[in-house]
Design a protein that fits this description.
266 residues, alpha+beta, Ribosomal Protein S5, domain 2, Alpha-Beta Plaits, 2 domains, four-stranded mixed sheet, four-stranded antiparallel sheet, 8 helices
Length: 266
């Protein structure tokens, strides 16, 4: 069975407060992109995983598709499988590509082995894998709260626009991203976002992590400026970075700046 795990961008990202468990409560709109990895799983005589495409750092045991398999195997006595994960979505880029892979694995196994697990239960299991994972069970535009586990689907559509995504390949550590932020600094108004066009979003719709991340990484700010020069209606960093996207009325020209670049097709 083959599926195509996607990724997301953040439309606004506000850090609300710090939780007693060390995580932070946040608020954002997650919007899915059709930039995808490829995940294939077939029954096999022993467990095996193979990866291709973009190189994946670390041991396979740390990969969320492997963790998702063993999570379900513990409760449903799954037979061994062979996994092939082809990576297209840049990792550590604020796009949630790894989270999408883990969530897609849960959904795939549920369908492949007729486990009849509800979406609610899949979301609960996805949340154990990572903070962004629950969103990718349904992979629909959603209002996100808590540490990412509260997913409320919303009617929000950017399909009439072009989205240009640039990832400069800069690794932003979690400590660096969270280090300079004061929770509760900005107010997130979901209704305002849903009722106004992207050209009006700035300065109300903002990613709290930008102030800190851009200050130490001028290349990211340069990408933002190039997108603005191209006529973007709205430009933002997504997640904790380092990817930046621009929303356009008409198809933009590739920047050809030597970084990973993607433009959706209407």
């Amino acid at each position: 069975m083959v599926v195509f795990p996607g990724c997301k961008i953040n439309i606004g990202l506000t850090l609300v407060d710090r939780r007693p468990d060390g995580y932070h409560n946040l608020e954002s709109v997650f919007y899915p992109l059709n930039l995808t990895d490829i995940l294939e799983v077939v029954p096999h005589d022993h467990f095996a995983i193979h990866t291709s495409g973009l190189p994946i750092k670390g041991d396979h045991s740390d990969n969320l598709v492997v963790k998702a398999f063993y999570d379900l195997q513990d409760d449903f006595d799954l037979p061994p499988v062979k996994i092939h994960l082809h990576k297209v979505v840049p990792m550590g880029a604020g796009l949630g590509g790894g989270s999408a892979d883990g969530a897609a694995m849960l959904v795939l196994l549920n369908n492949l082995f007729d486990l009849n697990i509800s979406n609610k239960e899949l979301e609960r299991r996805a949340d154990k894998l990572g903070s962004d994972c629950a969103f990718f069970i349904k992979n629909k535009a959603a209002h996100i709260t808590g540490k990412g586990e509260h997913v409320q689907p919303i009617s929000f559509d950017l399909s009439e626009y072009f989205i240009q995504l640039i990832n400069p390949g800069i690794h932003i550590s979690t400590a660096e991203a969270f280090g300079g932020i004061q929770p509760g600094k900005r107010f997130f108004d979901l209704n305002w976002i849903l009722n106004h066009e992207p050209a009006l979003w700035l300065p109300k719709v903002f990613n709290d992590f930008e102030d800190t991340v851009l200050d130490g990484n001028p290349e990211i700010d340069e990408i933002k400026q190039k997108l603005i020069e191209q006529g973007a209606l709205y430009v933002s960093m997504t997640g904790t970075g380092s990817s930046v996207y621009g929303i356009f009325n008409k198809k933009p020209n590739p920047l050809n700046v030597g970084y990973f670049e993607w433009i959706n097709s209407l």
